[in-house]
Amino acid sequence: MSVYDAYAQFYDGSGHVRFAILMAQYLQEVLARHAVQGRRALDLACGTGTLALILADAGWHVVGVDGSAAMLEIAGAKASNLDSAGQAMFVQRDMRSLWPGDDEEANDVLRPASFDLVACTYDSLNYLLTEADVLACFTDVAQALCPGGLFVGDMNTRHFLAHDWGEHEVVEMPGFIQLAQSTFDDASGCSTMRLTCFVGDDQRGYERFDETHVERAYPSDVIAKLLEAAGLRVEAVYDCFTFQEPEPYTQRLCWIARK
């Protein structure tokens, strides 16, 4: 089971959808500076599909990939109600292994060297906890991109995970309560967030579920080397949502690399 399977039905409503909307605007600005030739996009770790569907509405033909069947079910339902200039379809895949076998349906839409843009956003790369996993993902990205295609991916920085990500958070909505506790391990560079969620109401009672999310921060030189090892040339690293160079207190990096 994916860490987001139980949480999927509350993902958009708890505010995460806002990040995808903000990233869609930023991505448009990034592409004005780092142009691509076509309109075929792969959205890795697409979640409930918000970014993929915004791209489709702008005329892109998008394939969204995620490891959580529950998140993809929501993405598919949202896509069925979209009348857009482009199209979006969704496939369940691990971002470290896009072509694991003979899945004819997936292979119809997931073909090597067929995407002009690959995006991987909202901390998804931080969920890869070893350099080998990151390299496997970047290798898949390089294989998915056509020559000259562009990769855009964001990552939380060590400073953010260690200092700016709050230790405790409470989210309350009608029928849903979320308690989050986060700890940072200096030796591993990993932040562990334990979610305790309650679903229900005062009349019927509440049902509890728990999820644990672990993110790892990587030094920038390590990510640059892994991108290059995968066959991707780094064009820029930005303080995310700006076009400024990263600073010591930058919270999120945006990596731009081309095949």
Please provide the count of β strands. Answer: 11
Low-confidence stretches: none
What gap, in angstroms, lies between the N and C termini? Answer: 33 Å
Largest sheet composition: 7 strands, mixed
What sort of overall outline do the alpha carbons produce when their principal axes are compared?
globular
Helix percentage: 25-40%
Number of helices: 7
Order of helices and strands: HEHEHEHEHEHEEEEHEE
Write up this protein.
This protein is an alpha/beta fold and 259 residues long. Helix content is 32%, strand content 34%. Helix 5 links the parallel strand 4 (115-120) and strand 5 (145-156). Helix 1 crosses helix 2 (50-57).
Question: Which characteristics define this entry?
Answer:
single chain, 259 residues, alpha/beta, seven-stranded mixed sheet, four-stranded antiparallel sheet, 7 helices, 32% helix
What is the topological layout?
Layout: H1 8-33, E1 40-44, H2 50-57, E2 61-66, H3 69-80, E3 87-92, H4 104-109, E4 115-120, H5 131-144, E5 145-156, H6 158-164, E6 168-173, E7 176-185, E8 190-201, E9 205-216, H7 220-229, E10 233-239, E11 252-258
Parallel strand pairs: 1-2, 1-4, 2-3, 4-5
Antiparallel strand pairs: 5-11, 6-7, 7-8, 8-9, 10-11
Helix pairs in contact: 1-2, 5-7
